[in-house]
Amino acid sequence: MIRTIGIYIYAGLVVIGTLLHLPKAKKLSKQKSSAEINEKLFEQPKMVSRKVMERTGSTVYVKGQEKLPDGAVLFVANHQGLFDILALIGYLGKPVGFIAKKEIEKLPIISSWMEMIHCVFIDRKDRRQSVRAINRGIDYLKQGHSIVIFPEGTRSRGSNLNDFKPGSFRLAIKANVPIVPVAIDGTYQMLEEDEGRVKASTVSLRIEDPIYPEDYQNKKSGEIAAQAQDIIQKSLQGKTSEQTA
């Protein structure tokens, strides 16, 4: 537990260290959006995420970055644990925002950076606010900002998948952007597996083939959700068979 507390303290100090970069980043965020500006705004969140992951002693392997399309995409990932977000920010290979819980908006410094990388805060208990948040996410995608969703809705805390909820797939449908499935494995072993104690793990991010608008335009959101879940499930099973072969 002492090690876990130490990692949390380290993470807090690294986040505090980004305060020096906030004023410049806020000015930059007010300029006309471009790929270059998005990359610059993403530098500090990416740096923090990598440092914290490294501090845990974990190793992150990424496969399939060559499949990433240019422009905005909706990333669809399974949600094993809390460290999924750091793994994606640090190693995915593309600036991304998230559909995040409303509570995170209360966190100082972190919430400021999340706003600048175009995260959307959602209160699932407030239907009207949820609709506004989804519409904001659609606007961000149309403006060229990629977003990650976790359609399971909550952490699985293991290697099994919960059913994908179709509602969030409206983001891609309305914005007319590619959907990129990402299979995450190993993050639950960093925290959730051992009663909240942080430990090292081998984490993999497997980027699968994009599902382009022309491939899903005649499908309902439930069908798209089922397709994405099937892709990620097979990807996770493929990784398991590779390890045990």
TrEMBL record:
Pfam (any one): Acyltransferase
A GO molecular function held by the record: 1-acylglycerol-3-phosphate O-acyltransferase activity
Keywords (A to Z) from UniProt: Acyltransferase, Lipid biosynthesis, Lipid metabolism, Membrane, Phospholipid biosynthesis, Phospholipid metabolism, Transferase, Transmembrane, Transmembrane helix
Example of a GO cellular component annotation carried by this entry: membrane
EC number: 2.3.1.51
Sequence intervals crossing the membrane: 6-22
Catalytic activity entry: a 1-acyl-sn-glycero-3-phosphate + an acyl-CoA = a 1,2-diacyl-sn-glycero-3-phosphate + CoA
Biochemical pathway: Lipid metabolism
GO BP: phosphatidic acid biosynthetic process
Residues in Phospholipid/glycerol acyltransferase domain copies: 73-187
Top EC class of this enzyme: transferase
Cross-referenced InterPro entries: AGP_acyltrans (IPR004552), Plipid/glycerol_acylTrfase (IPR002123)
Keyword Cell cycle set for record: no
Database matches in NCBIfam families: AGP_acyltrn
Stated family: Belongs to the 1-acyl-sn-glycerol-3-phosphate acyltransferase family.
PANTHER family: 1-ACYL-SN-GLYCEROL-3-PHOSPHATE ACYLTRANSFERASE, 1-ACYL-SN-GLYCEROL-3-PHOSPHATE ACYLTRANSFERASE-RELATED
Domain notes: The HXXXXD motif is essential for acyltransferase activity and may constitute the binding site for the phosphate moiety of the glycerol-3-phosphate.
Protein name, per record: 1-acyl-sn-glycerol-3-phosphate acyltransferase
Organism expressing this protein natively: Virgibacillus indicus
Taxonomic lineage of the native organism: Bacteria, Bacillati, Bacillota, Bacilli, Bacillales
